[in-house]
Design brief:
The protein is mainly beta. It has one domain: Immunoglobulin-like (Sandwich). The protein contains one helix and twelve strands; from the N terminus they run αββββββββββββ. Strands 1-2-6-12-11-8-9 form a seven-stranded mixed β-sheet, with no helix packed on it. It has a five-stranded mixed β-sheet with strand order 5-4-3-7-10, with no helix packed on it. The termini are far apart. The relative contact order is 0.20.
């Protein structure tokens, strides 16, 4: 196990969302998860670290940029590993900087079905959608205020990918 994964495990991250998703590659240096195929299945965990912001943990990385081909059929399995607060996952059309970060979670969805409602501590949820429009989007927590503290990341759908 490399040092990044070991430290994440020591900080309370379970095995969930620690390994690269199937049919993807992880670029730790660029903090990216890159999908090659049009079927994308990934685990996403919201992780609270003592004295630090909550992050989305995907493929062993914190808040990575997700890159996938146009038309990808996407399934997200989400686990809220925060033992105190509710968290969820939502892919929106807007990108930072947001005029009002606390409103980011209310922006329109990027794709029909690209949302997991807030889950209670240790709760689970799932989303399924097709990434059918090229562009750069943002995944955020739909709990008001979480996108203002860093609980978000970029999502790129590329027609040439």
């Amino acid at each position: 196990m490399d040092n990044n994964l070991r430290s994440a495990t020591e900080m309370g991250v379970t095995h969930f969302a620690m390994t690269p998703p199937p049919d993807s590659s992880v670029d730790a240096r660029e903090n990216r998860v890159i999908f090659q195929n049009k079927r994308a299945t990934m685990e996403v965990a919201s992780v609270s670290r003592e004295f630090a912001d909550v992050v989305f943990h995907i493929g062993g990385l914190d808040d990575p940029r997700i890159v996938m081909p146009l038309g990808a059929d996407v399934t997200i399995t989400f686990e809220n590993q925060d033992g105190i607060h509710s968290h969820g996952w939502r892919l929106i059309k807007d990108t930072p900087p947001f005029a009002n970060p606390h409103d980011a979670a209310t922006k329109p969805l990027a794709f029909t079905g690209s949302e997991i409602a807030p889950q209670p501590p240790h709760g689970h949820g799932q989303a399924h959608f097709v990434a059918n429009a090229p562009g750069v989007y943002t995944y955020v927590c739909p709990v008001s205020g979480d996108d203002g503290i860093g609980l978000y990341g970029e999502w790129e759908v590329s027609p040439s990918h």
